[in-house]
Amino acid sequence: MKNFFDVAKNNPLFQGIAFSDFENMLNCLSAKAAIYKKDDIVLLSGNSINFVGLIVSGSIKIIKEDINGNINILTTLSTSEIFGEVFACAEIFHSPVTIQALEDTEIIFLNYSKIITLCSNACHFHAMLVKNMLKVLAEKNLMLNQKIEILSKRTTREKLLCFFDYQRGTARKFTIPFNREEMALYLCVDRSAMSNELCKMRDDGLIKFNRNKFEII
């Protein structure tokens, strides 16, 4: 239980929740744990969704497939991050996306309706969860705006530079969570064209890279 709490406390949803309340909270929210192997499907598009998933270990990618079979990676999430809360809050009962494990991953699923509804036991941590959920949704909105900004760039180079700027924060050296194919899908660009542009950026003295490790010069 301590391991679960050490992960959960790093997520804004559980800010202010004491360890002494954590086990009771999991019971109150009908928490269930599940383990997935690399490339396992966590949630398939069209499946019912009424939960919030907390990633205890590992990482996932959230993908969207259009009617022509083209795949777009919306985002990746890793340890201590949550998913599913936006759809549940919007009362979207069937998932519009597919979620896949990027590596061996453990997830705790929490009943969303029990997060935002005060229970008969009047658990004092419920008010804190509702407050925290509003903050989480606001942060997800910021992430969406970031991707919109990236995709609004006209050229592949501009998209890459904008993407790198968000990924690196204030650091010169950083690691991205994608391989080349996944990065191309995330940026909605052709993989070959993107690879060529990365090489041009390196030759122009803008970046250095080795696999998914990059440095802004």
In short:
The protein is of the alpha+beta class.
Describe the structure.
The protein is α+β, with helices and mostly antiparallel strands. The chain contains 8 helices and 11 strands. The protein has helices at residues 2-8, 19-28, 85-89, 112-116, 125-152, 156-168, 180-187, 191-203, and strands spanning 32-36, 41-43, 51-57, 59-65, 71-78, 82-83, 98-101, 105-111, 173-175, 207-210, 213-216. The strands form 3 sheets. Strands 1-8-3-6 form a 4-stranded antiparallel sheet. A 4-stranded antiparallel sheet has the order 2-7-4-5. The chain has a 3-stranded antiparallel sheet with strand order 9-11-10. Helix 5 (125-152) runs antiparallel to helix 6. The longest helix has 28 residues, at 125-152. The radius of gyration is 19 Å and the shape is elongated. The model has no long low-confidence stretch (mean pLDDT 89).
The first-to-last residue Cα distance is: 44 Å
Percentage beta strand = 15-25%
Class per helix and strand makeup: alpha+beta
- The number of distinct β-strands equals 11
Features:
8 helices; 25% strand; 11 strands; 217 residues; alpha+beta; elongated; 4-stranded antiparallel beta sheet
What are the SSEs and their pairings?
Blueprint: H1 2-8, H2 19-28, E1 32-36, E2 41-43, E3 51-57, E4 59-65, E5 71-78, E6 82-83, H3 85-89, E7 98-101, E8 105-111, H4 112-116, H5 125-152, H6 156-168, E9 173-175, H7 180-187, H8 191-203, E10 207-210, E11 213-216
Antiparallel strand pairs: 1-8, 2-7, 3-6, 3-8, 4-5, 4-7, 9-11, 10-11
Helix pairs in contact: 5-6
